[in-house]
Design a protein that fits this description.
The protein has 577 residues and is an alpha+beta fold. It is built from 15 helices and 21 strands.
Length: 577
């Protein structure tokens, strides 16, 4: 081949390699280059893995029997023909004339009597070989050796660039996956949703099959499953939704040991962990193709609470370090999310108990009056809203509603403090305005930034007179035979805003058949929609249902206006008979 022809060949090879996208396409282009441009009848590309073993990436030949070998089990330093390529980094012919022995037949078998081996050198290290098979014996004169060395360098550089790019893309995907896992960690508080999203995040980016198991009694129970494509092993195990913790199953071992389990073959001990499954069926499924599995413990607050199981037919001998890191990182983030969810639920339970302990539990009976109170927290039984119905002696009763800012334990604690203080002030003879001023002063000594709104009234049951005052709260709704309307309210700041003055009081006399509805803002406020529209909806509803019993009217308000509350809802209905 002339120098001009060699230059043209090199240019064509460079173009073919440049057009390939990804390691698999580059390897495919390499075997086509060997067969189409270098005259080989067969070609194979092999690369060294982390253990120094040769692994085939691509092969081509005119028939299955003439296809080059995949070098199963071939390791560097084993005294085989590839050692020369790995040691020298220069092209060579195998076998040398009259030197084709049994080892050669075993390693470079096929119909081609002669093989040219081109080492792939990257950063001064041989990372693989391109082997070219010929039906006639080959020789490598100096001019041909120069061409083959150039071809080897071009192929090595292209394959290395593809591998580096694939590693960078995988790293980006892993970072994106772990980023989603972090968002899960900080945004989700429902344990069931956490394990479900853990499985869907893993599939298909980590594996095509993922299941999540949590402890239930003495068993690990599957609580989430995500599948993008079936795998024979995973399909065979699909029916096992429960695994005893004491079993030899890798799931149970991962749970007990708190260590990742990598499974590349089904052993008799593993098969025995599934008593209702014939071992032959599990072994048969494992032999249907390459597969590997991972069992990754999920830890919350330092303890193993579950196991994430991944099964894939894309891994030959288990996942690589990057994928293993991603699986462990995702499981760790899910564990933190579960720990956060557990703490949140514990806080909810505490606040729920606190709220229930502090709200009235016994119905207050008033002569000639009906009363009804409703309390509906938004999302959980924890709230800062409160209501009051309390006899304070002499035929007088304290009635009121309030709303401390926020949710959870802090709001419930503030609610408890204000409600208890209000009771004490009322029993001590304070009127509504004095009572609210006392609460404002109390907040000035106990909290720097908390605030609350409240409306309190004193009912004289004998006369039907209600004297009331408001601290930044919505006006009471009066109703009766003549209709329904909001009572005029004096403007006053909420509790905690240090008003320091008399809030003033208003008086309304309830005639027989008339009454009041006291409510917190959750009954009428919506994220979408004007509050005036919701206030009118409440007024119209009460005007329509005014002649119903207090209980019926309270249920109608809750049922129609607070079906899906966006904020805590609390109300008191007071009706004179």
């Amino acid at each position: 081949m002339s120098s001009k022809d060699q230059l043209a060949t090199v240019r064509r090879i460079a173009g073919l390699l440049a057009a390939a996208d990804g390691a698999a396409e580059v390897a495919g282009a390499m075997v086509r280059i060997g067969c189409d441009l270098l005259g080989a009848s067969a070609a194979a590309v092999g690369v060294l893995d982390g253990a120094g073993r040769m692994r085939a990436l691509a092969a081509a030949g005119p028939s299955p029997t003439s296809a080059p070998p995949s070098w199963p089990g071939l390791a560097a330093g084993g005294g085989n023909p590839l050692d020369e390529a790995l040691a020298t980094g220069v092209p060579f012919v195998w076998p040398p004339p009259a030197d084709k022995d049994a080892t050669t037949d075993q390693v470079l078998s096929g119909e081609q009597p002669s093989w040219v081996v081109l080492p792939l050198v990257t950063r001064r290290s041989v990372t693989g070989v391109l082997s070219l098979g010929y039906r006639v014996p080959q020789a490598i004169p100096p001019e041909r050796r120069a061409l083959l060395e150039v071809v080897g360098h071009l192929c090595a550089a292209s394959l290395d660039a593809a591998v580096v790019l694939a590693a960078e893309l995988q790293e980006r995907e892993i970072l994106a996956l772990l980023g989603e896992g972090t968002r899960l960690m900080v945004s989700e508080i429902d344990p069931d949703e956490i394990v479900s999203r853990l499985a869907t995040l893993a599939v298909p980016r980590l594996a095509p099959w993922c299941a999540v198991y949590v402890l239930e009694g003495e068993e690990l129970r599957r609580v989430a499953l995500a599948v993008s494509e079936e795998n024979p092993v995973a399909t065979t195990l699909r029916s096992f939704s429960r695994v005893p913790v004491a079993a030899a199953s890798p799931l149970a071992v991962a749970y007990r040991s708190a260590e990742v389990q990598v499974i590349t073959r089904i052993t008799a001990e593993i098969a025995a962990a599934y008593p209702t499954l014939e071992p032959e069926s599990l072994f048969g499924a494992a032999e249907q193709g390459p597969w590997s599995a991972l069992a990754v413990p999920v830890k919350a607050a330092g303890s193993v609470v579950g196991v994430m199981s991944l099964v894939s037919d894309r891994w030959r001998d288990g996942p690589g370090p990057a994928l293993l890191h991603a699986a462990e990182g995702l499981a760790a983030r899910a564990g933190i999310a579960l720990a956060n969810a557990g703490r949140f639920r514990a806080e909810q339970r505490i606040a729920e108990l606190l709220t229930r302990a502090l709200l009235p539990t016994e119905e207050v009976r008033l002569d000639d009056f009906e009363t009804a109170a409703r309390y509906l927290p938004a999302g959980s039984p924890v709230a800062g809203d409160w209501f009051e119905l309390l006899s304070i002696g002499g035929g007088r009763f304290l009635v009121g509603v309030g709303d401390s800012a926020g949710h959870g334990i802090e709001a419930a604690s503030l609610m408890a403090e204000l409600r208890s203080a209000a009771r004490a002030f009322a029993v001590g003879g304070y009127g509504p305005s004095e009572l609210l001023c006392g609460l404002d002063l109390l907040m000035a000594t106990t909290s720097s930034d908390a605030f609350a709104t409240a409306l309190y009234g004193i009912l004289d049951a004998a006369t039907g007179t209600v004297t009331w005052s408001s601290a930044g709260h919505l006006s009471p709704l009066a109703f009766g035979p003549g209709g329904a309307g909001y009572l005029p309210t004096r403007r006053a700041p909420p509790l905690g805003c240090r008003s320091g003055g008399d809030l003033g009081e208003d008086v309304v006399v309830l005639a027989p058949g008339s009454g009041l509805v006291l409510f917190t803002d959750g009954v009428v406020e919506r994220r979408r929609g004007e509050i005036d529209l919701q206030l009118e909806a409440l007024r119209a509803l009460v005007e329509q249902e005014w002649d119903e019993a207090a209980d019926v009217l309270a249920d109608a308000i809750i049922g129609q206006l607070c079906e899906v509350p966006e904020d805590d809802c609390c109300l008191v209905v007071l009706k004179r008979l």
